[in-house]
Amino acid sequence: xNKRIIPFPIYEQLSLSISFSHTxxxxxxxxxxxSHNAILPSVKNDSIFAKKILNELDCYMNDxxxxxxxxxxxxxxxxxxxxxxxxxxxxxxxxxxxxxELAKELNSSARAVGNACRRNLFPVIIPCHRVVSASGIGGYxxxxxxxxxxxxxxxxIKQWLLAHEAVx
DNA sequence: ACTATTCCGGTAA
DNA sequence: TTACCGGAATAGT
Length: 168
Known about the structure:
DNA-binding, 5 strands, 3-stranded antiparallel β-sheet, single chain, 5 helices, two-stranded parallel sheet
């Protein structure tokens, strides 16, 4: 499994840490994490797939309407999580849904949907940031407006992504 | 026994 | 009338 750290210029020092693997037939992303690591990307020896990842993220930064074609290993999630993640992909850039709305479509509950979003292994590519609460912005990466657990202000990232996509 | 929720009833301004 | 709590209901992990 390969890993690639990509600067994600929402603000200085924010990066996307992307793990991926290639098989003989296909290339696939296994997980994506945010990080504050100032590790410089090593441009040499990049595989075709790594370059494709770089390129698609770059396209998204330039145009929020860009549609990713990167494959994500969605099977790493539970069956329910896979169902939720599949429907996240269908939310177009520039639109949002609430946890409750999504829950109704899936015959589930808002709380359970929030759970599955929190466990999303592929932030940005699978747009869990397009799910908000009925009353406000909802959470991101386990954080809520009230509680920030770690060093990264995830809600700020969610706000940025939504603003970039011209929501709000 | 936890959640990245939501809805409804009560209360006060 | 609106705005803000408190608590119950809810489904998945």
